[in-house]
Amino acid sequence: MARKCALSGKSHQSGHRVSHANNKTNHTFHSNLQQKRFFSAAKKGFIRVRVSTEMIRTIDKLGFDAAVKKSGVRLADLV
Asked: CATH number of the domain that 57 lies in?
Protein backbone atom coordinates (compact mmCIF):
# COMPACT_ATOMS: atom_id res chain seq x y z
CA MET A 1 0.00 0.00 0.00
CA ALA A 2 1.41 3.36 -1.03
CA ARG A 3 2.04 6.06 1.56
CA LYS A 4 -0.40 8.39 -0.14
CA CYS A 5 -3.74 9.91 0.87
CA ALA A 6 -6.57 8.29 -1.09
CA LEU A 7 -8.48 11.57 -1.48
CA SER A 8 -6.02 14.46 -1.51
CA GLY A 9 -3.04 12.60 -3.01
CA LYS A 10 -0.76 13.99 -0.31
CA SER A 11 2.45 11.99 0.03
CA HIS A 12 6.00 12.40 1.36
CA GLN A 13 8.34 15.40 1.20
CA SER A 14 12.11 15.40 1.03
CA GLY A 15 14.39 17.45 3.20
CA HIS A 16 17.40 17.36 5.47
CA ARG A 17 18.08 16.43 9.06
CA VAL A 18 20.40 19.15 10.34
CA SER A 19 22.77 18.35 13.20
CA HIS A 20 24.13 20.79 15.75
CA ALA A 21 27.31 20.97 13.64
CA ASN A 22 25.11 21.91 10.65
CA ASN A 23 25.70 18.56 8.89
CA LYS A 24 22.86 17.80 6.52
CA THR A 25 21.67 14.26 5.80
CA ASN A 26 18.79 13.34 3.52
CA HIS A 27 15.49 12.58 5.18
CA THR A 28 11.95 11.80 4.03
CA PHE A 29 9.03 13.37 5.89
CA HIS A 30 5.99 11.11 5.61
CA SER A 31 2.47 12.50 5.67
CA ASN A 32 0.32 11.71 8.69
CA LEU A 33 -1.95 9.01 7.25
CA GLN A 34 -4.68 7.27 9.22
CA GLN A 35 -6.88 4.30 8.38
CA LYS A 36 -10.42 5.57 8.99
CA ARG A 37 -13.94 4.37 8.41
CA PHE A 38 -16.47 6.83 6.98
CA PHE A 39 -20.17 6.49 6.26
CA SER A 40 -21.13 7.10 2.65
CA ALA A 41 -24.73 8.03 1.94
CA ALA A 42 -24.21 7.20 -1.74
CA LYS A 43 -23.06 3.65 -0.96
CA LYS A 44 -25.38 3.38 2.07
CA GLY A 45 -22.60 1.92 4.15
CA PHE A 46 -19.17 2.37 5.65
CA ILE A 47 -16.00 2.69 3.58
CA ARG A 48 -12.50 2.21 5.03
CA VAL A 49 -10.08 4.73 3.56
CA ARG A 50 -6.46 5.71 4.27
CA VAL A 51 -6.51 9.52 4.49
CA SER A 52 -4.34 12.30 5.88
CA THR A 53 -5.34 14.06 9.08
CA GLU A 54 -5.87 17.27 7.11
CA MET A 55 -8.40 15.44 4.93
CA ILE A 56 -10.15 14.06 8.02
CA ARG A 57 -10.77 17.66 9.12
CA THR A 58 -12.14 18.49 5.67
CA ILE A 59 -14.45 15.46 5.76
CA ASP A 60 -15.70 16.51 9.21
CA LYS A 61 -16.50 19.93 7.79
CA LEU A 62 -18.05 18.99 4.43
CA GLY A 63 -19.16 15.38 4.84
CA PHE A 64 -17.63 12.33 3.20
CA ASP A 65 -19.52 12.36 -0.10
CA ALA A 66 -18.95 16.09 -0.64
CA ALA A 67 -15.23 15.77 0.15
CA VAL A 68 -14.88 12.89 -2.33
CA LYS A 69 -16.65 14.95 -4.98
CA LYS A 70 -14.44 18.00 -4.26
CA SER A 71 -11.24 15.95 -4.48
CA GLY A 72 -12.22 14.59 -7.90
CA VAL A 73 -11.87 10.93 -6.95
CA ARG A 74 -14.51 8.44 -8.03
CA LEU A 75 -16.24 6.68 -5.14
CA ALA A 76 -15.91 3.35 -6.97
CA ASP A 77 -12.10 3.68 -6.92
CA LEU A 78 -12.08 3.84 -3.10
CA VAL A 79 -13.87 0.54 -2.57
From this structure: 2.30.170.40
In angstroms, what is the C-alpha Rg of the chain?
Answer: 16
Q: Phi/psi class of residue 36: alpha, beta or left (left: φ > 0; alpha: ψ in -120 to 50)?
A: beta
In a domain, 6, yes or no: no
Contact between 10 and 39 under an 8 Å Cβ cutoff? The reply is no
Residue-wise pLDDT for 6-48, tens only, equals 999 999 999 999 999 999 999 999 999 999 999 999 999 999 9
Gap between the Cα atoms of 19 and 74, Å rounded: 44
Report if residue 3 sits inside a domain.
Answer: no
pTM, full prediction: 0.83
Question: Could you tell me if 38 and 49 are in contact, meaning their C-beta atoms sit under 8 angstroms apart?
Answer: yes
